Amino acid sequence: MTHTCIPKETSELAKHRKNTTLHYISASSTMKVRFTTVVEPGVVYDAKQFAREIEIYLSDPDGWASRGYEFVYVTRTPAVAIHLATPEQIRAAECGDGSLSCAELRGRHIRLNSARWSGVLPNHSKLPLDEYRQYMVTHEMGHILGHEHVECPAHGAPAPLMMQQTLGIGACAPNTKLTCSDRR
C-alpha cells in the first residue's frame, strides 16, 4: 500500500479533486551541512569505513537530500560532528541515559550508540542492521535540522524517520525514507 500526502479540502474546487497528492519541491538553493565523523576511543570500528557509511546514508535521495540539504564531509571546521560512541560515552556527554543514540536539537553533535550500530543491543524497528543504521543517521540528523519526534500516522503507513523506531513502530511499516510526517 502506498501512502501519499493528501492536502486538506479547503475549497469547493478541492472537493472535486479526491486523488490530488501534495508534491514537495526541494529548495531552489541547496543548504550545505558540513560534517565530520569521529569513532570514539574504545569503540572497535574502522574510522574510514564509518565515514564512508555516513556519507552514503546522508546522501540518500530519499532522505534529507530530498529537502534540499547537501551533506559535505570535511576534516576541519565542521558544523556537525557525528560520533560513534559507547553507551557510557553518551551518558558522560549528558545526551541521554546511553541506551539510545542522541543529537542536540539544532545542535552540533550526533552520538550514535555503538552497541546499537553493531547490533549488540536490540532495536524494534523491524529493519535489517544496514537499514537500521540508515535510520539512525537520518533520524539524528533530523534533530540537528530542527525536527522533533513524531508518532505513527496511521495503521500500515511507513514509519516516519522522526519516529523513535528503535523503541518500536507500532502499527506502522518499517521504513528508511522521509514521509509526509517528517516534512512538517
Account of the protein in words:
The protein is α/β, with parallel strands linked by helices and 184 residues long. It has one domain: 3-Layer(aba) Sandwich (Collagenase (Catalytic Domain)). 23% of the residues lie in helices and 15% in strands. It contains five helices and five strands. A five-stranded mixed beta sheet has the order 2-1-3-5-4. Helix 2 links the parallel strand 1 and strand 2 (69-73). The longest helix has 16 residues, at 129-144. It is globular, with a radius of gyration of 17 Å. The chain starts with 11 loop residues before the first helix and ends in a 40-residue tail after the last helix. The model is unreliable at 1-28 (pLDDT under 50).
Based on the model shown, name its key terms.
single chain, 184 residues, Collagenase (Catalytic Domain), 5-stranded mixed sheet, 15% strand, globular, disordered N terminus
The top-level CATH class is Alpha Beta
If strands are numbered along the chain, what order do they take across the biggest sheet?
2-1-3-5-4
The total number of structural domains is 1
Number of strands: 5
Report the major sheet: 5 strands, mixed
- Overall mean pLDDT score? 85
Fold blueprint:
Layout: H1 12-15, E1 31-39, H2 47-58, E2 69-73, E3 80-85, H3 87-92, E4 102-103, E5 109-113, H4 114-117, H5 129-144
Parallel strand pairs: 1-2, 1-3, 3-5
Antiparallel strand pairs: 4-5
